[in-house]
Write a structure and sequence with these properties.
The chain has 282 residues and is mainly α. The protein is built from seven helices and two strands; from the N terminus they run H-H-H-H-H-H-H-E-E.
Length: 282
């Protein structure tokens, strides 16, 4: 009986001991769980603080970037405005230069047209010339051909004008050959003077062909001193055996456009040995 009681007491003590152990274990578990929860809460708080800090930095960075972008946009707009103003100014200057060039070009064209009209086109305020007279006047600028033209067309004032000039150019051409006799500078002068004579001859022949009463400056006045009428008279008499009309005047005046071309009033003169011969003034 006593043993049974003792066993029962031991059993109760074991149960009580086990309950106390279980209670201590549960308390430890609860404490550990509370500690872990507190640690988790602290970590969550720290993470929240970090997230808040990152968000604040992000907002500041976005604000700075936005400010920089706005400033860059303002600078870009200002630069574009300046470039646009410069482009407009440059376009205005280009337009002014283009207008100036157009006016200069128009002036050059007008001057060229006037030069062509003055030097390469027939003049309006002068008498008309027959086609055969133009041909004879033009070929009279060929060396030595002028004498033939002056004999054949001695009655034509137009051929007489250009024939005399062609004759004096031929004489100058022959005199130019004498320049080669001078050493050093002679050949150079020969080439220069020959080139000038050639240009004047070609231009004068062109003027004769288009019907202009062209008179070479200075040389035209010297050409009028050549006694062409006397030479033509003597040559015609030698070739035909007949007396030719003569004219003592050497100056050629361009006939008025209103007066028709043709022989003027004739005078009767007596030539020794030939009887009466007509004299026609040119």
């Amino acid at each position: 009986m006593a043993d049974s009681v003792i066993k029962d007491d031991n059993s109760q003590n074991n149960v009580a001991t086990q309950g106390a152990v279980s209670e201590n274990s549960a308390t430890k578990v609860v404490n550990v769980a509370e500690s872990q929860v507190l640690n988790a809460v602290n970590q969550v708080g720290q993470a929240g603080d970090q997230a808040l800090q990152v968000g604040t930095q992000t907002v500041q960075a976005v604000g700075q970037i936005g400010g920089q972008a706005f400033e860059a946009g303002a600078n870009t707009v200002q630069a574009v405005g300046q470039m646009g103003g410069q482009a407009v100014q440059a376009a205005g200057q280009v337009g002014q230069q283009a207008q100036y060039l157009v006016s200069q070009t128009q002036g050059t064209v007008d001057q060229s047209r006037q030069l062509v009209q003055d030097f390469l086109m027939p003049k309006d305020n002068q008498p008309k010339v027959a086609f055969d007279e133009k041909i004879f006047a033009m070929v009279s600028y060929i060396p030595l051909v002028a004498l033939i033209c002056l004999i054949i067309k001695s009655e034509s004032k137009y051929v007489l004008l250009h024939g005399r000039q062609g004759l004096i150019l031929t004489i100058l051409g022959f005199l130019n050959v004498l320049l080669v006799l001078f050493p050093y500078i002679g050949p150079m002068l020969f080439g220069l003077v020959g080139f000038i004579i050639f240009i004047v001859t070609v231009y004068s022949g062109y003027q004769a062909l288009i019907g202009n009463w062209w008179k070479i400056p200075v040389l035209g006045d010297l050409a009028e001193l050549i006694p062409v009428n006397m030479f033509a008279k003597v040559t015609r008499e030698v070739l035909t055996g007949q007396a030719m009309a003569s004219n003592d005047s050497t100056t050629i005046e361009m006939p008025s456009q209103a007066q028709p071309e043709g022989p003027v009033e004739q005078k009767q003169t007596t030539a020794p040995g030939d009887g009466v011969s007509p004299s026609t003034g040119v």
